């Protein structure tokens, strides 16, 4: 089998230059991971033996072992001495990890992760907005406003709009000056990006979102905690509406 992205060159590492080894290993790790996410290797089952994986992906045992170590560090698999490597339950996966989210890909709708992320935002962001209205520095408000301006200027570019949207919300958590919220900002950033991209892509127009983000910036500038919290709440209502549209466009198969 040829690994995704290697159309002409085999992935066997014997005789390869050392510099190519990381790329080969990364491709194999991604391919095994996507096979797990696609239920080629279902949860609770054992992966094929190392020798079988070598034959399947056309690489050495060293590459397979390195890939399995990475997958184990992210909670997808667990090695059992003298038994084999078992695929872990999805509740053990590090779903906030950027790579894990990329491996899950379009199946993120089947995992119901976007709804979970929205629930987490509802529990955190209104409080963060209220705290930011009271505690944010002038520079932090300026950075949040700059992110809003980038959202406004992105027009129909969903990727640019989403990157600016992520910067806005990360800046808001930072400006809360709550140490837990600040830590959460870095932890959930990848998940937040996936969530915002899904809702932004589903929206027929983003003018409403741009406007409410502007209103939140103004509330921060005026040090209006009540208005800041209300803006955040309305912002999440818009996100929930757009996310529901995204879900209807990506129906979950009955088997999921």
Give the SSE layout.
Elements: H1 21-37, H2 50-57, H3 61-73, E1 77-80, E2 84-87, H4 98-104, H5 113-135, H6 138-153, H7 158-175, H8 179-187, H9 189-202, H10 207-221, H11 225-249
Antiparallel strand pairs: 1-2
Give me some keywords for this one.
256 residues; mainly alpha; 11 helices
If you had to describe this structure to a student in words, what would you say it looks like?
The chain has 256 residues and is mainly α. Helices cover 64% and strands 3% of the residues. The chain is built from eleven helices and two strands; from the N terminus they run αααββαααααααα. The protein has helices at 21-37, 50-57, 61-73, 98-104, 113-135, 138-153, 158-175, 179-187, 189-202, 207-221, 225-249, and strands at residues 77-80, 84-87. A two-stranded antiparallel ribbon has the order 1-2. Strand 1 and strand 2 (84-87) form a beta hairpin. The longest helix is centred in the last third of the chain and has 25 residues, at 225-249. The chain is elongated. Mean pLDDT is 86; it is low at 1-21.
Quick recap of the structure?
The protein is mainly α and 256 residues long.
Kindly report the spatial arrangement of strands forming the biggest sheet: 1-2
Strand and helix order: HHHEEHHHHHHHH
> What's the total helix number?
11
Query: Could you give a short account of the major beta sheet?
Result: 2 strands, antiparallel
Estimated share of beta-strand residues: under 5%
What is the share of helical residues? 55-70%
> Termini separation (Å)?
27 Å
Structural class: mainly alpha
Q: Averaged pLDDT, please?
A: 86
| DSSP, total strands | 2
Rg over CA atoms, rounded to whole Å, is 22 Å
Broad shape:
elongated
């Amino acid at each position: 089998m040829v690994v995704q992205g290697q159309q002409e060159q085999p992935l066997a590492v014997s005789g390869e230059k050392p510099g190519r080894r990381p790329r080969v290993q990364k491709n194999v790790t991604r391919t095994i991971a996507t096979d797990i996410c696609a239920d080629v290797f279902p949860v609770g089952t054992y992966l094929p033996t190392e020798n079988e994986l070598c034959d399947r992906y056309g690489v050495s045992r060293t590459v397979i072992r390195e890939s399995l170590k990475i997958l184990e560090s992210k909670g997808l698999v667990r090695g059992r001495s003298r038994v084999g490597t078992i695929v872990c339950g999805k509740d053990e996966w590090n779903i906030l990890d950027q790579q894990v989210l990329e491996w899950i890909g379009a199946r993120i709708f089947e995992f119901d992760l976007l709804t979970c992320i929205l629930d987490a935002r509802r529990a955190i962001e209104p409080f963060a907005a209220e705290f930011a209205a009271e505690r944010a520095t002038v520079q932090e408000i300026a950075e949040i406003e700059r992110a809003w301006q980038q959202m406004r200027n992105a027009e129909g570019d969903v990727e640019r709009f989403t990157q600016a949207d992520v910067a806005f919300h990360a800046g808001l958590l930072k400006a809360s000056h709550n140490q837990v919220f600040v830590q959460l900002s870095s932890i959930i950033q990848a998940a937040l990006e996936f969530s915002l991209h899904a809702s932004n892509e589903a929206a027929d127009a983003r003018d409403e979102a741009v406007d409410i983000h502007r209103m939140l910036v103004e509330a921060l500038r005026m040090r209006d905690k009540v208005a800041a919290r209300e803006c955040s709440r309305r912002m999440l209502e818009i996100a929930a509406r757009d996310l529901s549209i995204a879900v209807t466009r990506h129906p979950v198969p009955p088997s999921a």
